[in-house]
Design brief:
With 188 residues, this protein is mostly helical. 79% of the residues lie in helices and 0% in strands. The chain is built from eleven helices and no strands. Helix 6 packs antiparallel against helix 7 and helix 8 runs antiparallel to helix 9 (137-150). The chain is elongated. It starts with a helix and ends with a helix.
Amino acid sequence: HPDRPFVWLTLAEGQETDFGKRYFRQQAWDELEKALVNHPEKELVYLGTKPNLAENLNIKSAKKMYREIAKIAEKKAKSFSEPYQSKPYWMRAISWNIRGGRPERAVLLAQKMVKEYPNESTFYELLGWAYSEEKDWKMAIEAQKKVVEVAGDAAKPRAQLDLAELIAQNGDLPGATQMVEGVIADLS
């Protein structure tokens, strides 16, 4: 059941001994790992309560929590024999690695995925995000240019605005302004 991690946490809070608290917290973590894999639709519920959950599980930093969840997603992605089934888990693994302070791992995973799925704009977008976290603006811009190239017509304006933001962060304000003006002109 998707609420099992919270049940174990409630039980941990009621324990009087340190051993009991540790045992039930470990059970909560084990159940959370299962729940993230078996109930991915509840992922935002778990992560929405992340600070409290991390604190109750004695995970001192949110980044560590994200890294742990990234490992779970990566393990799940590798378990599928059909590549299309693994795509959502690879996306999660990449984004949770970024949020967990491991953009270098996210870059490696995203590079692998853009080779496997050259027309999947989401993987290019994640690659750009990972590069921007590393402050590698040149590579982030290149990845975002690919997003613009493969994005559908409806998604292209947003992708272009994201590209303009990266160009501005790279220090080219006139180029970013020109791109934004072009997007506005196209939408008018």
